[in-house]
Design goal:
Blueprint lengths: L5 H28 L7 H16 L3 H11 L2 H12 L11 H12 L1 H7 E3 L5 E2 L3 E10 L1 H4 L6 H12 L12 E10 L3 H20 L9 H15 L2 H14 L16 E2 L3 E6 L3 E5 L4 E2 H6 L6 H21 L11 E4 L6 E4 L6
Parallel strand pairs: 5-10
Antiparallel strand pairs: 1-3, 2-3, 3-4, 4-7, 6-7, 8-9, 9-10
Helix pairs in contact: 1-9, 3-4, 5-6, 9-10
């Protein structure tokens, strides 16, 4: 095999950026030109469906921006937030065949099929990955004992533990309900091209004396670092380990709240942790906005959970110096069976 020269790689990258630019102009150009249709009652719904569909088909970076916009009614208004709200946990799905290929590549075709059973239909999807509900086989000898601490498992994995073993499966083994997160295929390449285009735009904005004080390139570097870190699910597992250490989970074996924990973080289940696939404990919960919609505006439970959520965030900032970097409503669940409502945050990204 002959390796491609740096010049050839640069030409290919330039062509990818040019193709992406042409695609975005073709998709969003007509949309912007026909923006007045969104102001007329007879065409408003049609234009907004077109707008949301355009964002859904345009890749992870634009979906991430739409997710952020949907959580900022103070900036964009309730109408915009309502239209983009479903992108917080219901983005376009990739097929099961791509998920199976990722599992084969990360853990081995035989090994994961011996240890994992997955429902074929995803239970949620974000701009980076989608999530399945499944079951993880646990050896009978250790099923009744508490799982080893996530921090110790992380250390063992980092020290060279490799993938899971296919030895020791038994009919007496127990099964644990888990959530399995799988990165969308090709998402890293598309984000790389989009970020290059954004940096080119940022450089143009930086040349303006009026906008230079906003430091657009510095903001883009911060955004790029956050988004790039999310592409490696082992980073998420490490952050979960740290968050669970900072906010110890309830001590009961079945995950039910004892009234002492304000927030519950999923447990990454080593060694089923890799760059593209993350297996973690499953905690059943109700999406935050759905839970809030079932209560009257003056219900004290709404005020209580806002107070508790603020308490958690303040502890992250001032006590632990580790802050969840993606706290939109799609990543916050309320555990319905808890004696006092408990926040549950998914898809952790620490910063």
């Amino acid at each position: 095999m002959v390796a491609a020269s740096p010049q050839a790689g640069g030409v290919l990258l330039w062509l990818r950026c040019a193709r992406r630019t042409a695609y975005l102009l073709l998709v969003f150009g007509p949309l912007l030109l026909l923006y007045p249709l969104s102001r007329w009652r007879w065409s408003e719904e049609l234009w907004w469906r077109w707008c949301v569909s355009s964002f859904e088909r345009s890749g992870a970076l634009l979906i991430k921006l739409a997710q952020w916009a949907s959580s900022r009614p103070d900036m964009f208004g309730e109408r915009v937030c309502r239209r983009f709200k479903h992108l917080q946990d219901r983005t376009p799905l990739h097929p099961w065949e791509a998920t199976a290929l990722s599992l084969d590549r990360m853990f081995g075709a035989t090994v994961w099929r011996e240890h994992l059973e997955l429902e074929r239909a995803p239970i949620g999807s974000g701009c980076i990955a989608q999530v399945y509900r499944g079951r993880l086989r646990q050896p009978a000898a250790s099923a009744s004992a508490a799982s080893a601490s996530a921090a110790s498992a992380a250390s063992a994995s980092t020290a060279g533990g490799g993938g899971p073993s296919s030895d020791g499966a038994s009919d007496d083994d127990a099964w644990r309900t888990v959530a399995v997160k799988v990165v969308h295929p090709g998402v890293a390449e598309r984000i790389d091209v989009d970020m290059r285009l954004l940096f080119a735009l940022g450089a143009l904005l930086s040349a303006s004396p009026t906008l230079r004080w906003l430091q657009p390139l510095a903001m883009l570097r911060e955004f790029a670092g956050m988004l790039t870190a999310q592409l490696d699910l082992s980073n998420e597992a490490d952050n979960l380990v740290r968050f669970r250490r900072n906010f110890p989970p309830p001590p009961t074996a079945d995950g039910r709240d004892t009234g002492k924990a304000l927030v519950v973080f999923p447990e990454p289940l080593f060694p089923f942790v890799s760059h593209d696939v993350l297996v973690e404990s499953f905690i059943d919960g109700v999406p935050f906005l759905e839970w809030a919609a079932t209560l009257p505006a003056d219900d004290p439970k709404r005020a209580q959970i806002c107070t508790e959520g603020t308490d958690v965030y303040v502890q992250m900032v001032f006590v632990h110096n580790l802050v969840h970097g993606d706290l939109h409503p799609g990543n916050i669940f309320v555990v319905p069976h808890a004696p006092s409502k408990v926040l549950r945050c998914l898809h952790m990204e620490g910063s």
